[in-house]
Every structure is written in C-alpha cells, then in structure tokens.
Design a protein that fits this description.
6-stranded mixed beta sheet; 19 helices; about 25% helix; globular; alpha+beta; about 750 residues; 9-stranded antiparallel beta sheet
C-alpha cells in the first residue's frame, strides 16, 4: 500500500503538535507530550488515535474504513478520506468489532455519502484528545471523553451545519457482515436536544448497546432513512440553526451503557453534567498523566516516545463496562451489579496473561485485582462455569486456545494482589474440567490432545500444561494437596508431545503415534495455532529444565535457541499468514506474535545467560520505533507494549504464577519506578548503549546480586539497582544452580 506524502512527517507531527498542545499553564503535562498514538502497525490499520481514558468504556475516534483486516481499529494512517467518528474501539486486535454510532458533521451541501477528505497536517492526537480538519465538509472536529461519555466539538466554517449519524455502522470483516451487523434497533428523539437508542449488534460477539446523545443546541430538522432495505438501523441527518452566522459551533455528548438507556443517561449525568469541552479534555489528560508519571526515564526523545506510548497502549484495555452505579450486562445477557463497583471486559487473555497483567500487578495492582474479581464473576455467571477466554463487552467470543485466565489469577495470588484463594481455585478447577471445551476430555484421558480431534492439538497441549501448573501452584497456596497432586500430573503433560528423535514438540494422533510428514517451520496444518513447532517447542515456562532435556540437553537447547534467532525463515512459511509478517521476525523468532515473547530470556537457565543480554536490545531496536510502522506486530490489547516496558527495565515475567522476574539487561541509563506501596525503585545503568549492552555486575541496594532473577518482594522493597555495563559479556556470572530461575523439575534425565 502506497503511503501518502505526509507519512514521513509522522514522528515530527505527532510529537511537536502534542508538545505545543499540552505545554501551557492550563495543560502542564510532562509525560503526555511523549505519547504518539499514531504508532502501530499501519499496514494493518492498527493505530490508536482515539480519545479515551485509562481502561475507559468509550473511545471516540476517527473512522477511515469499516471492512476487513485493515480496519480492525477503524483507522488506517495511509487513508486520506474520513468516514466519520465512532464511539467505541478495539485496539490492536486481529479481528474487527465495535466502531459504534458513526457521526459525521458537515456544513452546506455535503457530499452524497458524507465522507470527506481531511488535512493530515491538522491531525492532533494524544491520550484523551483527537482533532482534525475536514476539507470537504468544512468542519474542525475535536474529540475527548470521560470513562463512559464521549464528547465532540464541531467548529463549522460554512452556513447550514448538519450532523450525519449512521447507527448501522461498525467494524466488521466484510460488507456482507456489515449489512447484517445490527439485529435490532430502536432509535427515538424525545426532544430536539436528545436522541436515545437501544441496539443489538453482532460480529465477533453479540451484544447490546444503549445510548443517549445530547446536543447543546436544538436540531431544527431530522431526516431518517435506511441505506439498504436489509439494514435494521437508520442513518439520520440533523440540521442546526446558525442565525445567519457563517461560523458556528456544536457540542455533542454520547453516554453509553450495556444495561439500559437509563444507565446511559445516569453515566452521562454523573460524569459530564456541563458543556465545557476544554475542561473535559484537561481532566482526561490529567488521568493519563497520573498513570504515565509513575515511571521516569532518561533517554532520547524517540526512546521516551516509545516508552510512554507503550504505557498508553497498555492501559487502553481491558475496559470497565459497568455503569457508574455498578450495574453491567453479563455473558448470559442478564443484568448484574458489581459488589466492587466495576466490571472489566475485553480480555485478550491468550496475549495479555504473559506480561500485561503482570505489569499491572507491579504498577497498578488495585486495577488488576478488580480485573481478577471480574473474571471470577464471569465464571460464576457463565452457563459453562468457565473463566473468560477472550471476552468483549461482557460476552465471550472463544477466540484462541488455552484457559489463560487461570494464569492471571495465579499470578495475582503469588504477588499478593488478590487474596481470596479458595474462590479463585474453585473457578480455575471448573474452567479446566469442562469436557466439551477444546480437547479437554481427551487431554484429561490421554495426557495430550490428538491432532485428529483438534487442529491446534500440540500448542493447546502445551498451553494447558502451563495453565495446569498455575492451578497446581494455587492449590498448594490453598493447602489442597489432592488438587495440587492432580494438577501437578497435568502440568507435566507437555512431555507427551515431544519427539526425542527430532528434539521438538510434535502432535500425536489418538492411537499415540506422532504425526507423519512433519515440518517444524510450517505454521499451517501442523497442530499449532499462529506459530510453528520451532517457536512453540519453547513454550514450557514452568519447567524449563525439563524442556531442555526433552530438546536434547543443554548443548542442543542452546544451539536451537541460537539458530532460531539467526536463521533465515523462508517467506513461504508466513506469506499467507496475516499474524506473521517479515517485519515481526528476528531470524525465525516471531516477536510479532505473543507465544514467543519469553524465548529470549530462556538463556538464563543455561550456561550462557549473557546471550539474553545480546538479543533483547536487538529486538527492542527493531520492533519498537517512533514511526507509523513502529510496532513489529499487533499490540493485542497491550501485550506487545507490556513486553517492551518490562524489557527496558531489565527483567521479564517468563512464568507468571511465580514471584520471579528473569533478568535481562537495562535499556536506559536511568529509570525510576513509583511503586504502589509508596516506595521508589531506581534502576541505574550508566554508559549503557549499543555496545555496552552486557551486564558485568548488579548491585541491589549495595549488595552484589548474582542470580538470574529478582523476586516481586525484592522489587517492592524499592531502593537502588546499580548495573555495571560492559561491551563484552561476563561469562562467569549466574552459572551456579542457586542462581537459576524457577523450574518445576530439575530435568527428566
């Protein structure tokens, strides 16, 4: 896809405009200026220029398309034609949805389809705010929000202002699905200042949406029509009086709810009972500044942009979908009330259990605790008795494999974020024993999932084994030895699909034989989901020493790691895979897809832990840049960004559910983290650069630290970590048995 002529200006435009927009007496933001919401994977339209609050329910933003992979987030930076501005979003996922209630202001005689070319040079985006000038429609558009309410400000430059609202609109996979997206709609105008509505929509999930739209001036006419007879929701055009003035302003508020119109009205009234757009914009910015200011770094401007943009990405989702009174619509389409006032959804758990939730445990544990409580409520209200797999707006879409919510629960318990162990364990056991869920019956009977029963047999077996280990650890915490023993055996099921003859994971058939004609580089038809055996074979984070033995011993294991990062992966193995592209590869290592994220840290279990310190900067430099294509893969609701945030600090949660973080190498000369207990942690690495990437030594609060890991408790103590960096590796550090990170076993030989 050819870029427009302004693409090369993106880093300059996105940053400088934000600096001048924010740095004044009324907007004294120090960290917000470094967030560039245009950074994403532009070749698939996964950029994030939306006005949103941290974990907020509404995300008003620009819509430049609706259909297919390129518009999963509704906006593609390559486009120059604006379709309108919708109120909800999915950010960085691989499947489109949301994009509800498309609004398009115009003045005078508008183009027939209401779309307008826009001036790329006028685009401004930073957390909580978006603005752009529409050339054809003669309008300046500004967007901001509260957690449940979107606010629009339109400045018209011509007479006869109007607003086009398409209630049928939404992000879908095809035009045919767009036509069938709305199942039911009831739109009313109780007065000339107000529109209320209820819609039932479906695409990735089926859900209900209730809304109240308020104008600060009355509309003088309303025109309704169905664009197609098959549409169940109308498109409406509203006109507004200007009293003969050529220039005019219109303010719009949109409150939404999953519960009722009354809930949307109360959300609007409670959060936004005035019409001061600039005040809302300022308050949204302050919310983001509060989060971003928890970490201070020293680095180049581009490094700061990558860092604070990653923090922004990580805190867009999950979303609190409960109304201000705590009511929410659950997965069984009934209304519940949250005992803790919030209910989180949009859990991309196949991705986010790895680093996003562990990062929240470290920086915002109170939010992650509420997310854990929400997951348990989901299980208790589910007809299946299952924790969420991939939930959106309270509903389940069953995307991806594993039951990784158990990892989030176990990690929160291990790190003291959540304390109701018995309630968590009950939900974990229920989830992991549903016989009709992907291969579980066979998995419990055979110790693996047969390929003739499931196309993701091998990867799902590996994922279940890790998930079962987290249940084992939780059962130990609960003092339930019987359950612990059961899940200890299940945690070792990964052993059943390793072929000792080749030293890689390989799917089995129901009769116990391995799949014939097996290709360890192929991502299709070999029993793995969105990955190949060469990457997925390293997916035993809970028993690394056991995995090392199955892959032929340490020498063979290190050789496989080395080759993974240095090999050339022929294009034939990924050219038709929308989740894996050339841009997301380092050799054969697929950083753009999450199952590989822990792999660079696995050297810590070997006699060559220094190799982690070589590869981490290589990945950081290639995959995270201040550029429109700055991410080496979909952000997937924060996981790509969470990997970055941990890795630049110098450690990573290879095995969530332990209290350990495996050490890598620091990326900045100085980083200061405000801990949730009020203490601070300063990480100092003077002189660190491209050449001096190796850790010669580490002192934690003055004491030499030779281990290849740190604990959660050590981090929460705060203080000062002092890294002595070197241009050559210290090959004697971290080699003792007691220096190695956790492994369930010491090996199988």
């Amino acid at each position: 896809m050819k870029r427009n002529s302004f693409s090369f200006l993106l880093p300059l435009i996105g940053l400088v405009v934000v600096i001048f927009s924010c740095k004044n007496e009324d907007d004294p933001f120090e960290y917000l200026q470094y967030v560039n919401p245009f950074i994403g994977t532009a070749y698939t339209g996964h950029t994030f220029p939306n006005a949103t609050c941290p974990f907020g329910m509404v995300q008003p933003g620009p819509q430049t398309g609706n259909f297919a992979w390129e518009y999963c987030s509704g906006y593609n930076y390559e486009d120059s034609l604006m379709w309108g501005f919708s109120q909800t979003r999915l950010n960085g996922t691989g499947i489109p949805d949301s994009g509800d209630i498309l609004m398009m202001p115009f003045a005078g005689q508008c183009r027939e389809n209401y779309k307008s070319f826009f001036d790329k040079k006028t685009e401004v985006a930073y957390p909580g705010y978006y603005a752009v000038d529409l050339v054809d429609n003669q309008v300046k558009v500004e967007l901001t929000c509260t957690p449940h309410v979107a606010m629009h400000r339109y400045l018209f430059n011509e007479e006869n202002p109007g607003l086009y609202i398409d209630f049928q609109s939404g992000c879908v996979s095809s035009e045919q699905q767009y036509d069938n997206r709305v199942i039911y709609a009831d739109i009313k105008t109780p007065d000339h200042y107000t529109i209320t509505g209820e819609m039932q929509v479906r695409h990735w999930v089926e859900r209900r949406l209730f809304f109240v739209i308020k104008f600060d001036k009355p509309f003088i006419s309303e025109e309704r029509k169905l664009v197609k007879e098959s549409h169940r929701a109308p498109s409406c055009v509203y006109r507004f009086e200007t009293n003969g003035k050529k220039q005019s302003q219109l303010l719009v508020k949109v409150g939404i709810s999953t519960v009722s119109i009354e809930g949307a009205e109360e959300n609007l009234r409670s959060e936004l009972d005035h019409w001061n757009f600039d005040q809302v914009k300022l308050e949204a910015g302050k919310k983001w500044e509060n989060y971003l200011s928890r970490v201070q770094i020293k680095g180049t401007t581009d490094q700061k942009v990558s860092f604070y943009t990653s923090m922004y990405h990580l805190m867009i989702q999950p979303n609190n979908i409960a109304d201000v009174d705590g009511q929410y619509r659950n997965s069984e389409d009934s209304v519940s009330i949250s005992p803790f006032g919030k209910y989180y959804s949009t859990f991309s758990l196949w991705d986010t259990y790895r680093a996003e939730h562990p990062f929240l445990n470290l920086v915002k544990p109170e939010h992650n605790a509420d997310m854990v409580k929400s997951m348990i409520k989901h299980e208790q209200q589910s007809v299946h008795g299952m924790l969420p797999i991939w939930s959106m707006m309270g509903n389940e879409n069953w995307c991806m494999s594993g039951y990784h919510a158990v990892s989030v629960l176990a990690d929160a318990i291990a790190k003291g974020t959540f304390s109701n162990i018995d309630e968590a364990l009950s939900a974990m056991i229920s989830t992991s024993t549903v016989p009709y869920y992907e291969g579980i019956a066979d998995y419990m009977k055979l110790g693996y999932i047969p390929l003739d029963k499931s196309g993701t047999a091998a990867s799902s077996t590996l994922e279940y084994a890790y998930d079962d280990w987290t249940i084992y650890k939780t059962a130990l915490k609960a003092g339930n030895k019987e359950v612990a023993e059961t899940y200890l055996k299940r945690a070792l099921n990964y052993r059943n699909i390793y072929d000792a003859n080749i030293g890689f994971a390989r799917p089995r058939i129901s009769d116990g034989t391995f799949k014939k004609e097996f290709d360890i580089l192929q991502t299709f038809g070999e029993g793995f989901i969105e990955g190949n055996s060469w990457n997925f074979s390293f997916h035993v984070p809970h028993d690394v020493f056991g995995m090392i033995d199955l892959m032929g011993g340490e020498k063979s294991f290190v050789e496989k790691l080395d080759k993974l990062f240095s090999m050339h992966l022929p294009e034939e193995y990924y050219e038709h895979n929308e989740d894996i592209t050339k841009e997301c590869l380092v050799g054969g290592y697929v950083h753009g897809n999450e199952p590989s994220h822990h792999i660079p840290y696995l050297y810590a279990w070997t006699s060559q832990p220094w190799k982690t310190q070589y590869w981490i900067p290589e990945i950081l430099n290639k995959m995270y840049r201040n550029d429109i294509n700055g991410l080496g893969g979909n952000d997937d609701c924060g996981q790509m960004s969470a990997w970055y945030l941990f890795s630049v600090m110098g450690f990573y949660p290879v095995c969530p559910g332990t209290d350990q973080y495996v050490l890598g190498t620091p990326y900045f000369p100085y980083l200061k983290l405000k801990l949730p207990n009020g203490k601070t942690l300063e990480i100092k690495a003077p002189g660190v650069n491209e050449q001096k990437r190796y850790v010669h030594s580490l002192k934690i609060n003055g004491e030499t630290h030779s281990k290849m890991y740190v604990t959660h408790e050590e981090i929460l103590k705060g203080g000062i970590w002092e890294f002595q960096m070197s241009s050559s590796p210290n090959k004697r550090r971290g080699l003792k048995t007691e220096d190695k990170p956790y492994s369930l076993t010491k090996g199988i030989n």
